[in-house]
Specification:
two-stranded antiparallel ribbon, 484 residues, single chain, magnesium ion transmembrane transporter activity, transmembrane, Mg_trans_NIPA, elongated, 2 domains
């Protein structure tokens, strides 16, 4: 690669710092607006005006604008200064989430916040890279060098590894939205049938109780709707009543008219059958109530989504935002390449217009990769911040973004040439350990807080189940009247 090209006309640290501060604000506001919209229930408006889906889309636009602003700022100030200022995004984002969303910052995560912030500052102070602009040929060389290829492979492994983890995880432990809860709890057909049944019955409450009794009876006896209807019609008809009497007496009509002895036998047999029916009814009465309660509990358990284990949440809380940060880091490097190509084309005054190489193949490559990166960021944003709080996930995301961006600068754009001396390399290693340690600390704090919330929810569910069982046990007489 040739010598790094600089342009004094675009070098202005004050403008660069101002743009990065604006990017910090866009990151924080866009991120909070997206999660605020995702937390709205069905029918609720975002700021009393926007639909929740439109609100999320507006938040995504604000969020993505920060990347563009940051890429533009790279033309006006060195990376060392901008990285130090851009690390304030962690503080701004946590403050915005605390004020707007009410997210609580876990106390265990505070050292992690400080560690990530300190690592970003140490990186910015150690790597004193100039504002370089690469031509098309130089970009092709630096982005396909052996070190760059290794970097791209590692980033692809992180991103696609996250996808392979997230896909089965979301299938097994989906997040139930308000629309899904409505569909599961009260299906539309069931609601329509309930309305029709209430209108047909003179007493809606008795109709509901009778339906519950009938369902419980069918569950025990194994009767289908067709069998139950046929038996009911047969019993209600005059001939059916007579036939039922003769059947239970185990005697035909002809035998009853011919002999008196057979009549007495029939009477005795009928009495025994009646007693057996009464005993059977008494024996089935208590199981009916128990079976119906168990059926209701099984149906309720079937509609509840599975909950992930603590270890699964720990892995997801690290993999989701890390994959998002890695995807954004690749996008930031692509934006830096686009910015550099734009700058060199606009400032190349010595080359005749008919001899300018516009590098169409490079633009096509940037476009294709950019579309993939854009779609990946959108998907990871929805998955990450619909499941995890901003105060827990954002430090991991931003830590990965900062670390991967600096490593990408070393591997792709050869910023390592500006790290001179053992002291500078010691600072780079120290900053790397601070960022990685901060990510691990915040991830553990997030997992610990999530585990505590799960335990509280489990205790609340147990208390609610105990209260429901106590309420059911307090009404045995009413259940017996219904079965009678």
């Amino acid at each position: 690669m040739g010598e790094c090209e600089t342009n004094e006309a675009t070098s202005n640290s004050a403008i660069g710092i101002g743009l990065v501060l604006l990017a910090c604000l866009c990151y924080a506001c866009g991120n909070c607006l997206q999660r605020y919209s995702l937390l709205r229930k069905k029918g609720e408006k975002v700021f009393w005006v926007l639909n929740r889906h439109v609100g999320w889309f507006v938040g995504a636009i604000v969020y993505f604008s920060a990347n563009g602003i940051y890429s533009i700022a790279l033309s006006f100030a060195p990376v060392s200064v901008l990285a130090a200022v851009f690390s304030l995004t962690i503080v701004a984002n946590a403050t915005c989430a605390w004020l707007v969303l009410g997210d609580q910052v876990p106390k265990l995560a505070l050292p992690g916040y400080a560690s990530v912030l300190a690592g970003s500052v140490v990186f910015s102070m150690t790597v004193q890279a100039e504002v370089c602009h690469f031509s098309g040929e130089d970009l092709k060389q630096v982005m396909t060098s052996p070190a760059a290829i290794v970097y791209w492979v590692i980033m692809a492994f992180i991103v696609f590894g996250g996808i392979m983890f997230a896909y089965p995880f979301e299938k097994m432990y989906p997040i139930m939205t308000d629309d899904d809860d409505d569909d599961i709890d009260v299906p539309q057909e069931s609601k329509d049938d309930a309305v029709i049944d209430d209108k047909d019955q003179p007493n809606g409450g008795d109709s509901s109780n009778n339906n519950q009794k009938e369902l419980a009876h069918k569950a025990v006896t194994g009767l289908t709707d067709q069998d139950s209807s046929a038996l009911q019609d047969e019993e209600n008809s005059p001939s059916g009543m007579q036939w039922s009497t003769l059947y239970h007496g185990d005697m035909s009509l002809k035998e009853q008219n011919n002999t008196t002895t057979a009549h007495h036998n029939n009477t005795n047999s009928s009495s025994k059958t009646t007693e057996n029916n009464e005993d059977t009814q008494q024996q089935q009465q208590q199981p009916l109530e128990t079976d119906y309660t168990e059926m209701a509990q099984l149906e309720q358990d079937a509609t509840q989504p599975m909950q992930p284990s603590s270890l699964s949440l720990l892995l997801a809380g690290f993999i989701y935002p890390s994959s998002l940060g890695a995807t954004e880091a690749v996008g930031a490097l692509i934006l830096k390449g686009v910015n550099s190509l734009f700058t060199t084309m606009a400032t190349d005054e010595d080359t005749p217009e008919d001899e300018i190489d516009y590098h169409i193949d490079l633009w096509i490559g940037f476009l294709l990769v950019g579309v993939f990166i854009f779609a990946g960021i959108v998907i990871w944003l929805r998955l990450t911040y619909s499941r995890f709080q901003i105060t827990a996930a954002f430090p991991v995301e931003f830590g990965m973004l900062t670390f991967a961006s600096v490593v990408g600068g070393f591997a792709v754009f050869e910023d390592h040439q500006y790290v001179q001396g053992a002291g500078a390399w010691a600072g780079v290693i120290c900053a790397s350990l601070l960022i990685l340690g901060g990510i691990a600390e915040v991830g553990y704090a997030s997992w610990f807080a999530q585990k505590a919330r799960q335990e509280e929810e489990a205790q609340a569910e147990k208390a609610e189940a105990a209260a429901t069982k106590q309420s059911q046990d307090a009404q045995p007489e009413k259940a017996k009247d219904i079965d009678g």
